[in-house]
Amino acid sequence: MDVVDPSLTPKPKAPLRVMSGMRVTGALHLGHYFGAIKNWLKLQDQHPCYFGLMDWHGMTTAYKQTAEIDHWTRDMLADWLAWGIDPDKCILFIQSRVPEHLELFMIFANLTPMGWLERVPTWKDAVEEAKQNDTHNLGRFAYPVLQAADVALYRGALIPVGADQVSHLELTREIIRRLNHLYKAKLPEPQPLLTENPLVPGLDGRKMSKSYHNSLLMAEEEKELRKKVNQMITDTQRVRREDPGEPERCTVFTYHKLFSSLEDQAWATVGCRSAGIGCGDCKARLYENINRLIAPARERKKDLLNNPQHLDSIIESGCAKARTEAQKTLRDVRERMKFHSAGRLWF
Q: Phi/psi at 83 (nearest 5 deg)?
């Protein structure tokens, strides 16, 4: 029997790290669930995951509401936990409590050409809006650089994004690639982890957004949920109860595709096209299905917010773990740069 030298046996590759986060801007809506959290629930069982509550990013547009940011951050974390994000399976952290984010950002800022940022579509498209609402600031302009630091700090290799966001990740890859080239560093260039990102329209058929006041919150109370569902735009060509309608023209039916069983979808389709049911009947069934999904998480969130010490312990533990990894990366980057000026007087 041949004896195999253990040193010659290939070591199994470590699973790739996933890095993602959400900008802290206020209460989460159901678009956040379908756009991110639903996917995170799967990823936390498959990869080492780092999920960040990005309050520095939130401040780029909420710098006049800084007193609200801590509340929004805790509320967002409570939503994550209530819907099943597990701090025992992944590392949850608050961006501003890991100061290494800003230090790596400063390094990246000095090697990122202005032209790269000026070409970012999300900046070019939002310039006029930013000027009008007084958010035309350096923080918002440099947002992609901090985003690159967020990813690199935890050596994120996989970034869950929708197909329409892949181009945004390329700037992060370019910044990390330049650091690696200049200083012979070995930070991984993150790859997009394409995820299904179904369109969740607002109550009025437009994109769901808090700024449009057309969103359904992830912890919406029953009374308010019923009220909002009843306000949804239906097929505008179905004027009277006896008029047949077309579900594909109806915002309510778009929600049925997300929240209702195939049986309920068939019931709504046949009933609408034959005028066998009214729009009120359709909305009532939709309300029941949405509330069935939301109710358990809504109650868990209340319990979490009523137990601040437990929430604090999750925050402290997650931020400590994140800092440990962040410090490793920053030490390595400084070593590669041969930059050891920390602690020297500069005045």
A: -90, 0
Give the count of domains, the chain: 2
Instruction: Say if residue 192 is in the same domain as residue 227.
Output: no
Model confidence band, residue 11 (pLDDT cutoffs 50, 70, 90): low
**Residue 129 and residue 230 in one domain:** no
Specify the CATH number for the domain of residue 275: 1.10.240.10
- For 42-55, letters b (16+ CB in 10 Å) and e give ebbeebbbbbbbbb
First-residue to last-residue Cα distance in the chain: 71
Chain-centre distance of CA 111, in angstroms? Answer: 27
Residue-wise pLDDT tens digits, 66-75? 999 999 999 9
Rounded to an integer, what distance in angstroms lies between the CA atom of residue 19 and that of residue 56? 17
**Among the residues of 83-137, which ranges form H helices?**
100-111, 114-118, 121-132
- Select from 315, 319, 312, 234 the least CA-distant residue to 279: 234
Give the domain CATH number at 183.
Answer: 3.40.50.620
